[in-house]
Amino acid sequence: MSEQELREKLIILARENSDVLGSRQIVPGKDYIPPSGKVVGAREFEYLMQASVDMWLTAGRFSDEFEKRFPEIWGLKHGLLVNSGSSANLTALAALTSSKLGDRALKPGDEVITPACGFPTTIGPAVQYGLKPVFVDVDLETQNATVEMIERAITPKTKLVMMAHALGNPFRADKVSELCKSKGIWFVEDCCDALGAEIGGKHVGVFGDFATCSFYPAHHITMGEGGAVLTNNYQLNKLAMSFRDWGRDCYCPPGVSDSCGARYCWKLGDLPKGYDHKYIYSHIGYNLKVTDFQASLGLAQLERLNGFISKRRENHAYLEKCLKELGLDEELVLPKATAGTAPSWFGFFITLKQPGRRLEVVQKLEKSLVGTRLLFAGNLTKQPAFRGVDYSIPEVLTNTDKIMNDGFWVGIWPGLSTYHLDYIATQIFSAVR
User: Fold this and answer.
1) Cβ atoms 126, 112 nearer than 8 A
2) Residue 341 and residue 97: Cα distance in Å, rounded?
3) Could you list the pLDDT tens digit for every one of the 433 residues in the chain?
4) CA atoms 210, 214, 220, 223: torsion sign
5) Cystine design at 35: which of 75, 163, 196, 371 (Cβ 3.0–4.6 Å)?
6) Which of 187, 166, 64, 92 is nearest to 377 (CA)?
7) Pseudo-torsion of CA 290, 292, 295, 297, nearest 10°?
8) Is the domain defined by 53-301 classed in CATH 3.40.640.10?
9) Angle at the Cα of 27 from the Cα atoms of 21 and 31, rounded to 5 degrees
10) How far apart are CA 414 and CA 155, in angstroms?
11) What string of H, E and C letters represents the secondary structure of 299-348?
């Protein structure tokens, strides 16, 4: 058998056996219903097998194709794959510290505004680069900060607003963008939980200087581990690429040399003239690239993205209807889409109106095999990691603390049907009542 014949046979076998290899039936009341999960099928197995037989162990043809197609969905010009959503945030923030940005470069002591209710790696890179977090509160129904909250927190030291769209429900990034542009403030949209969400018919992520995305298995599409940094700005994309790729000045991908035609013509730093440009470093960077195995899975998932988004919206609407029919809107603060937006829901968030019952309720749900999660870090200022961090809180974090103490979410991911959601609703009813 020739190599090509063997390749084709392996790919066919992977495709034909995907139902057996990737299937997992969840029976309510018998099996645990996780709050998030992946949905894979024949195309994912086929592409993974292709990447395996290619045996290209770093970023390759699948990565190239993903980096081309993914920004097009957002209506953006540039996209870089990285190894996680957290690395995407790190890469975007690091790019804004580059000396190549002149007076606009972020420096230690500059202030960055972000909601206190969020995920730690949205703001973690700012802390690591010596910026000062300024934590604002959120709206209780949308779990997002409003533009008014952000505007009140701005000081002469504010140089960046970096915040996430909470559980797929967008904040008004269009208005935040206008505010930031009027004051010369950088703006980074963390879209890790919100792929496919829209504001006024435009995809989230198009409003900031950078957008970041995650492909962890819990998210809208998955690579297992993976993330992306997106921008419309050529200079910012080049800076992000440098920090992703060891901090080097050269933009040739691995295995490619002399794209600029001047590989041995540079004189940078105190290096001798003609030093190989592939080994000249303009930043203190990292290696945050993905493998082609990851990218192949992501490319297959990308073909199913629209269906995943639609299913999440359908499931969210159905569970909301079930809970209202059970009369639970009297005892629960149910999620509300931010006005003027179309969410791409990540989970179904619930806040108990009666304080002090969250632990009892989630333990009952977990015992009945309904998976629950909290809204990540709750109040970041209460986390042990932030002890000793220099931050400020311009206003009382009333809603953040309410969410930290009384909120949780359950799953509405595409692998769940109305059969599962009916069970989840009845178990929430039983636990709350």
Assistant:
1) yes
2) 32
3) 788 888 888 888 877 777 766 667 899 999 999 999 999 988 998 999 999 999 898 999 999 999 999 999 999 999 999 999 999 999 999 999 999 999 999 999 999 999 999 999 999 999 999 999 999 999 999 999 999 999 999 999 999 999 999 999 999 999 999 999 999 999 999 999 999 999 999 999 999 999 999 999 999 999 999 999 999 999 999 999 999 999 999 887 767 788 778 899 989 999 999 999 999 999 999 999 999 999 999 999 999 999 999 999 999 999 999 999 999 999 999 999 999 999 999 999 999 999 999 999 999 999 999 999 999 999 999 999 999 999 999 999 999 999 999 999 999 999 999 999 999 999 999 999 9
4) positive
5) 371
6) 166
7) -130
8) yes
9) 85
10) 43
11) HHHHCCHHHHHHHHHHHHHHHHHHHHHCCHHHCEECCCCCCCEECCCCCE
Q: Residues 78, 165, 203, 219: which is the catalytic one?
A: 219
Would residue 219 show up in a list of annotated catalytic residues for this protein? yes
The domains of the chain are located at 53-301, 305-432
Supply the CATH classification number for the domain 305-432.
3.90.1150.10
Residue 10 tokens read as 């392996």
